[in-house]
Structures are given as C-alpha cells and as structure tokens.
Amino acid sequence: MAAQVTAASTTTPASTPSSSASGPAAEPELPPFGPAAALSCRECGTRYPLSPVFACLECFGPLEVAYDLPTGDPEALRKQIESGPTSIWRYAPLLPVPADVATKPNLHPGWTKLVKADNLARELGITGGLHVKDDTGNPTHSFKDRVVAIALEAARTFGLTTLSCSSTGNLAGAVGAAAARAGFRSCVFIPHDLEAGKVVMAAVYGGELVAIEGSYDDVNRFCSELIGDPIGEGWGFVNVNLRPYYGEGSKTLAYEIAEQLGWRLPDNLVIPIASGSQLTKIDKGLRELIKLGLVEDKPYKIYGAQAEGCSPVSAAFKAGHDVVRPVKPDTIAKSLAIGNPADGPYVLDIARRTGGAVEDVTDEQVVEAIKLLARTEGIFAETAGGVTVGVLKKLIETGQLDPTEETVVLNTGDGLKTLDAVAPTTGPTATIRPTLAAFREAGLA
Amino acid sequence: MSASVRIPTILRTYTGGQAEVPADGSTLAEVLESLERNHTGISARVLDDTGKLRRFVNVYVNDDDVRFSEGLATAVPDGASVSIIPAVAGG
C-alpha cells in the first residue's frame, strides 16, 4: 500500500491528534478545504480567511487560494496520486477540497485522454512530439466540469444552496449538471445569442436558465451586481464569489498532463484564453509540481490563443502593453468571447516570463483548424479547440514555436456543441440513388 | 448634476452598508470626488496612487463601461446611474 502523504497544515483540525489515552476518539472532522490555508490577493498579498469572497478589500485584486502543500517524499506522493480515483480527485491532496471528496455526490470529472497526435504533428511539421489534451471526455464535454467540481465543494462547505454562474455556454451546462447531481438549485445566466447546442445542453438539466439581452460581459456585470443584492444571498456564483476555488480546478489540467507524460513537463503548452483564468492556473499547477518535486524543474513555454474577433490579450502582448484594453467581441468562438478578461494582465506576465507568446487567428482559420484536427486525429473540437490548433499552426509558421520541441495543445470542448461553425462547409460528399451505378457516376468507386 | 452610485459589497463599509448612494458631478471624476467628501476613504479604493482607476475595477455610467469612453472624464448626465464593480469575475 502506498504511503499516505498528508498536508502540513497548522490551521486545520487535521493536525489535531486523533486518539487519546482514555480510548478511541471520534473520527476527527476532515478539513473542508484540505491543504488550503487562506485566500491571498494576487496583487497586494493581503490574506483573508477561506470564505466566499473574490476581490481584495484593499485593491480589488483577485483572491486566490494559498496552501500549506504536502511535505515529504515526492515518490510517496506520486504513488498516492497514482493509486487514487481516475478523476481530478486523485489530486485532492493539492486542491481546496476535503480528503474524502470522492465520496460526495459530484460529477467526478477529469482524467481525460492525452492523445499522442502524430498525424497532426506530421501535417504541422512538428518533430519534437505533439499531444492533444482532449477534455471533451468530461461529463458535460468541456473542461468546465473540473472548475465547477471544486466550486461545488466550496458551496457545500459554505452552506450555499443555489449554484449559479455567468456563462458563454459550457459553464452553464457544467453548473446545471453538477447542481442536479448534488441536489442544489441552479440558476445560470447566458448571453441571448449562444449556439443552440450549448443552450440545450445548459437547459436540459432542469435548473433555471436565463438568457440576458447583451454580451457575455453584460451578463458578467449583471451577475456581479446580483451577488451584491439581497436576492443573491445563499447563492454560489462559481465564477464570481466562488471564483478563487473554481479557478483551482484548472490546475488539474497541468497535473494530468504531467502525470500522463510520465511525471514530466512538456516544452510548450498552447492554451485558449477567455478570461485567462485557465491559463494562469495551469501555470500555477506546473509550478506546484516543480516545487513539490513531482517533476524535474525544467523550462516550459506557455502560449495563449485567442480568436481575432476577441483578442484583447493578444493585442496587448503584441503591443508590449502590460494592461489589457477591453473590446467588444465579434467571433464564432463564443466560448472565448470575453472582451474584458479578468486575468488578462496575468496571462501577459506568464507568456513573457516563460518565453511564450499570445497569438490569434481568424474565424476562417478556426474552422479550418477544427477540420484539421478532426481529419488527422479523429477529435471533433468546439471552436475553442479550433482556436488553439489554429494558433499552434500559426505559431509554427511564424517561427514563434520550435517544432523540434514537445508541445501539448488543449482542446477544451466538444464540437457537437458548436455544429453551426462547421455546418455550412461540412456535409455529405454526394447524395445519390441507392445503386452501384449512381455511386460510380458520383466518382466514388 | 446628481447621480446615483451603486456600491459593491466590499466598499459598503464606507457607506454604512448602503448599496446605493447619491453623488454630484458632471464627470466621473467629479462624482468620485463627491463620493469621497461624503464617504471618506472610498476613492482610494477605486483609484490607484496616480489617480487612475485601479485595473481591477470596472465603472459603468448607465450601461457604458467608461473604459470604452473617456475614463474619468466620462460625462455623467443628470440622473445617471454609476456602477462600481469588481473586475475579477467571470471566465
């Protein structure tokens, strides 16, 4: 049996001895946030108790989870993880969740495939190795199940009863499904003009789905105001007041990629940017793996990917700016259509610190890339996956990414949700009568 | 010129818990000055040391993000609603 590695926390009941001289004691209550010690402002460092708050009282900066991470033998921690569930809960010792989280009602997301993409590599001229981290395998077919699962546990601990979010589509479905499984009420908010597939996938779980007449940024603003109103009491907005916990779910992408590569880091990662939270948390996860000794400390480069019609971070990167000027989105990549990305400045920092870049592609290139990935690897990506693969192609063509290095590109959602993007240029090769002659006449024999 | 300013939860310690307070001014800068006169200390939470809007604060005059207009110089019409909102939400 693998040795257990526990969190070295000084702030939780876990550090309390569990037995006494007078006989067996009651089971100690597991710390509800595992190794998490506090919330910390990413801007000014002010610390706060673990609670449903998301912005710093001093400077409005984003709060993130600070940890007392496990100490001890990395090999023992590796073995503990490897013997864990085939879901994100194998990484519970590194997440703000209780150690018994896998026994609670939730969707058990994660441990999705890391696909060795030799055919795509050949097409793109990559010789150093290429993998697609394919998150379509999650319960609601996007990476959002990861982040929602962490936020759900926080909501449970804080006694919140309604699960909510502002969403570009994928998140609404993930929240609806998670709430259904866990017995929460859900009420989610989306822009009124989303793809039909995403609307249906958000509505089918039976919660309340509210379409707002406006853009995603308008929806987000509305939710931020709602949480400050008495109406919002008892509500857990996964990406507003639970955002510090929610964001940590994206670290599991980093953990899985490293573990699936045999506990090592790739040279390059190409990651989509909407708010930028996912990219910043993947970087956080990679740095934690190095700090814990779970992987060898080596350089890696992080590349951000946007659609040209909503590319405020890419524009700032190219202009050398360290602030992001908001834009009004106009792209088919609606899951990335956040014109005012909350974590944009941090994405810029990370791309520059690691020697990566932020690039963008046109909607036409997005569609071409969706088809390229499908044709070469049998993976049908939603538009966000088209953005990452399209940007990967562009990075190679422009000499920004070294094709002799090993690269991982993320596909964060399922193409079935964005059929509209490819439907106009995808269909039957021919429509014929059911005869051999007709098949020959169509030039298919 | 008078406006109504919506105060986010994290700033309500400055307004005695009120979610909405009145302020005067014909530009956003003047409205914030008015706010500061009535609720000392609040403007230092919204503006940085150089007097600019902090990068994690969104301010709307009616439905318009002031970053798309004139920033602190954005005109505030009589009876307008000004909303101060933390920017670190979403995604």
Largest sheet report of chain B:
5 strands, mixed
Number of domains of chain A: 3
Largest interface (CB < 8 Å): A-B, 42 and 24 residues
Under CATH, the topology of chain B is which?
Ubiquitin-like (UB roll)
Low-confidence spans of chain A: 1-23
Strand % of chain B is 25-35%
Strand order of the largest sheet of chain B: 2-1-5-3-4
**Assembly state (oligomeric):** heterodimer
CATH H-level superfamily of chain B: Beta-grasp domain
Helix content estimate of chain A: 25-40%
Average pLDDT taken over every residue of chain A: 93
Radius of gyration of chain A: 22 Å
Number of helices of chain B: 2
Written overview of the protein:
The complex is a heterodimer of chains A (445) and B (91). By secondary structure, chain A is of the alpha/beta class. Chain A has three domains: 29-103; 113-141 and 249-425, Rossmann fold (3-Layer(aba) Sandwich); 144-246, Rossmann fold. Chain A is built from 15 helices and 15 strands. In chain A, the strands form four sheets. In chain A, strands 6-7-15-12-13-14 form a six-stranded mixed beta sheet, sandwiched between helices. Chain A starts with 18 loop residues before the first strand and ends with a helix. Chain B is α+β, with helices and mostly antiparallel strands and 91 residues long. Chain B has one domain (2-86): Roll (Ubiquitin-like (UB roll)). Helix content of chain B is 16%, strand content 25%. Chain B has two helices and five strands; from the N terminus they run ββααβββ. Chain B has helices at 28-38, 43-46, and strands at residues 2-6, 20-24, 57-61, 64-65, 81-86. In chain B, strands 2-1-5-3-4 form a five-stranded mixed beta sheet, with helices on one face. Chain B starts with a strand and ends in a 5-residue tail after the last strand. In chain B, 43% of the residues are buried. The model of chain B has no long low-confidence stretch (mean pLDDT 94). The A-B interface holds A 43, 53-55, 57-63, 166, 216-218, 220-221, 223-225, 227-229, 237, 239-240, 243, 274-278, 323, 325-326, 328, 338, 340-343, 345 and B 6, 8-10, 19, 45, 54-58, 60, 63, 65, 67-68, 83, 85-91.
